[in-house]
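ok trying again, last paste got cut off:
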Amino acid sequence: MSASTRIDRCKPDDLPELVRRWDEEFVFAKGRQLSVAERFPEVVSPANVENIHLVRAGNGIAAAAAVKLFGWVAQGRTWRGAMVGLVYTRPDCRGRGLASRVLHALQEDLGRKADFGVLWTTIPAFYKRLGWVGGDTSLFGEAFGPPAPDAGPAIRPRPLCRDDIVLVETIRSRWAPERVERSLLSYRAVPLPACSVEAFLLDGGDGEQGYALVGRDGETGYLYELVGHPGTYEQLWGAVTASYRKTYINDRVGGALSEWLNERGLAAWKRQDLAMWLPLSARSREVPPGRWSIPYLDRF
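nice, full thing came through this time. structure:
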């Protein structure tokens, strides 16, 4: 590394330049809208700068990668996870190993903060050299056949308010035994390629509560999760598929939603095989890579 190139932590004053570069690479160059700062407010924030690593070249940012620390609830325990994303190298600085250097620094830091790391990539060989291992049970599906009948006026898509989030968290704690811990800010995320996130909520009698969270991109819906009492699935599915011209689904192999859809022949699936994991603590080695699947709304 040259004397004028150094690894550093992001500072609040770096965020405008970094956001501009991330937007150019991951958003606007692909014909999409909404800045990464709006899409991933937990990550691209002054409160998270200590978890963003940079390579500086002269007076500018040459490479960067970001981390979101989170809790993963599984097996009656909470594990410390570290999600890595927005790995970037400035075009005129590529081919110099800067992304590898920033990831080495990032991983060394994570060893003190997390039990495991996770990321998603289409270039797994690059990350394997850095110690990451593949393992993905994620499924991407498309709703099969015509939309289900409308669920009626009781279930309509809407933005989440604070009271809705309280209900969603109540349902998750009952019906999602493996889950990422979320804050109010977590529910402001808008994963690519959606332009907004809509909620479908059902709070019926006898404990029959359920919800669906769906990203909207024009007339296309991306169903991130449908969680709740099994008795709510039909109504929620009907409401979701009636609200979009085309509906795609995110779930996992053996997930409650994918199993329900498969029993009824309502979706066609494709394995993703994009997730990679980095064991960081002794307790992380108790769980094989790919044992868990991170919900799409929680990714960046």
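cool. Helices lie at 15-27, 36-39, 98-110, 124-128, 162-175, 233-242, 256-264. The chain has a mean pLDDT of 93.
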